[in-house]
Amino acid sequence: MNIPIIEIIDLHKSYTETAVHVHALRGVDLTIEKGEFTAIVGPSGSGKTTMLNIIGGLDRPSSGTIKIRGNDISNLSDNQLIDFRRENIGFVFQSYNLIPVLTAKENVEFVMLLQNRSQEERDARTLELMQAVGLADRMSNRPSELSGGQQQRVAVARALAPKPAFILADEPTANLDSVSTSDLLDLMANLNREEGMTFVFSTHDQRVIDRARRIVLLEDGKIISDERK
Amino acid sequence: MPNILTLARRNVWRNKRRTLITAASILFAVFFGVAMTSIQLGTWSHMVDSVVKYHFGYIQVHQQGFWEEKTIDNSFDPKEVRSQMQNVDGLKSMVPRIESFALASLDTRTKGTLVIGISPELENNFTKMADRIQQGRYLEIGDDGVLVAEGLAEYLQLELGDTLVLISQGYHGINAAGKFPVRGLVHMSSPQLNKQMIYMELTTAQWFYGTGDLVTTLIADVEDADEMTLVEESARSILDQEKYEVMNYKEMLPDLMQARALDIAGGQIILAVLYLIVSFGIFGTLLMMVKERQHEFGILKAIGMKSSQINLMLWLETIAIGIIGCLAGVVVSLPFTIYFNRNPIRLPEEQAEAFESFGVEPVIPTSTDPEIFIIQAIIIFIIISVLSIYPILKINNLQPVKAMRS
């Protein structure tokens, strides 16, 4: 039996700060198990990013429960959430979001440094990941010296570096050309297949949807369909 | 892999122009702070030195009541004080004086004068008076002549070798009158003293005023100005307070001290305004920095960097800019202070009166006391440290999702 990595029960999220009361999520239930390659799809405003943010501990639900590896993270403090994210979740953002003053190698190594891993372990893991994403020869380059596709591959390596339970990728291919998109999808599919890494994407991109093995369709904050290929 | 310190260092140089502009504003604050303080303290140090080192001394011992009523009748025998004070640490010598007044006359001209009986060798060790002789010679032991201040000599139209007639009231009301050949003309840096001083040898003055071996004043000449308090405390504890009064220069010159305190307080207000202006400048930069990098701070929090670690990084960045500015400020202000310490600014005549009213040569030297540089740098450093609380608060309340949307 597969181990549930993510367990969402009756998740609601409302935004009340603006004049218009927005119900971004309306009672979402979802379980994602280890090794899944899941795409959360839906039109703009359907609640994809909100759901990803809540799964990632970047935002808090209005009500409902969210469990990661069986731990309820809904009531953790801000600092506890930071620690939780660092140890359990890898993030890949739409606009790469690498640290501009660090080289590609240093960006990958950064989270491991925050985890107080030894220098030897960091060096070995960074080399391994940079080779895996095909950028072992660009380790000393800063983000501004890399293409968008290369930056996103470094971002994937950074997300994998702390050996997280799963990787959340918010529209990871939105800023990439077709070749870079294809390369990135190959990379993530390989990591999923060979290392059993769990991936959860939010996307509009049909190429990503085509490669996903599970597709969760959201509309108006509700899951409309949940298909496994 | 860079630690937080390296990350902060790289961030400092990431926006060179902003870093340099901020450091420059700190540089100017330190420079103006140092320049102002250096001029102010240098000027006052010069004033105090002029009055204290060349006339009053740091500490004086009198018979109790002399300072209130400066008459020759309040003289005392210095032997007891000398013997009791001889082993006091930091005391160089006890310089005896008789200080009183006399009417000086030459031909048809007459003027009220301040007569000081001095021990030539001890006085010269203390005030370097022999160096200030403009014409003639310095006094010798047992000398029956006098030294006359240049300004007074000019008024009386006397020349070297002339005989001056002095008339006064001596000890316990006896008549004091005598004729004294002029041995030398002495320059007093204080314009006020230059118009009224007459010096005679101590035993000659004791004869003139009929005091026998008594003196009115014993000046405690200290090894080092910093030891003044030590010597003063020793003197107060050793000497019988009912018989003798021990006074430091601050007690003897309350007007000068008050003027100094007022001036320094005024200077501090100006400096406070300067610091306030600079603080706003630095604060503006910090605001800009936090706003500009909000997205990045959101990312750092998202991937697991704690608020305390981001705060430390930002604090290091701010402090690094502060250190650059402070060091540059000290480096720029050093040549200024050294130059004007060696080449003091001479005040024009119309502005010199205030100085002359205190009997001080109207020049403005700067002070090169290292404390000035250190204190200015520390003040600016504290300001920067306090200002960096703002980004810390901002970071603590930063929500990654909102920050990443910015």
What is this structure's SSE topology?
The complex is a heterodimer of chains A (229) and B (406).
Chain A: E1 4-15, E2 22-33, E3 37-41, H1 48-55, E4 63-68, E5 71-72, H2 78-88, E6 89-92, H3 104-114, H4 119-132, H5 148-160, E7 166-170, H6 178-195, E8 198-203, H7 206-211, E9 214-219, E10 222-228
Parallel strand pairs in A: 3-8, 3-9, 6-7, 7-8
Antiparallel strand pairs in A: 1-2, 1-4, 4-5, 9-10
Chain B: H1 4-12, H2 16-56, E1 59-63, H3 78-85, E2 91-106, E3 109-118, H4 120-127, E4 133-136, E5 146-149, H5 150-156, E6 163-169, E7 175-186, H6 191-194, E8 197-201, H7 202-209, E9 217-222, H8 228-238, E10 244-248, H9 249-252, H10 254-292, H11 294-302, H12 307-342, E11 345-346, H13 349-357, E12 363-364, H14 370-387, H15 389-396, H16 400-405
Parallel strand pairs in B: 3-8, 5-7
Antiparallel strand pairs in B: 1-9, 1-10, 2-3, 2-6, 2-9, 4-7, 5-8, 6-7, 11-12
Structural description of this entry:
Chain A has a single domain, classed as P-loop containing nucleotide triphosphate hydrolases (Rossmann fold), CATH 3.40.50.300. Chain A is built from seven helices and ten strands. Chain A has helices spanning 48-55, 78-88, 104-114, 119-132, 148-160, 178-195, 206-211, and strands at 4-15, 22-33, 37-41, 63-68, 71-72, 89-92, 166-170, 198-203, 214-219, 222-228. In chain A, strand 4 and strand 5 (71-72) form a beta hairpin. In chain A, helix 4 packs across helix 5 and helix 5 runs parallel beside helix 6. The longest helix of chain A has 18 residues, at 178-195. The model of chain A has no long low-confidence stretch (mean pLDDT 91). With 406 residues, chain B is of the alpha+beta class. In chain B, a hairpin with a 5-residue loop joins strand 6 (163-169) and strand 7. Chain B has helices at residues 4-12, 16-56, 78-85, 120-127, 150-156, 191-194, 202-209, 228-238, 249-252, 254-292, 294-302, 307-342, 349-357, 370-387, 389-396, 400-405, and strands at 59-63, 91-106, 109-118, 133-136, 146-149, 163-169, 175-186, 197-201, 217-222, 244-248, 345-346, 363-364. The A-B interface holds A 53, 56, 58-59, 78-79, 82-83, 85-87, 91, 93, 97, 99-102, 105-106, 109-111, 113-115, 119, 122, 158, 162 and B 1-3, 7, 10-11, 14, 295-296, 299-307, 309, 399-401, 404.
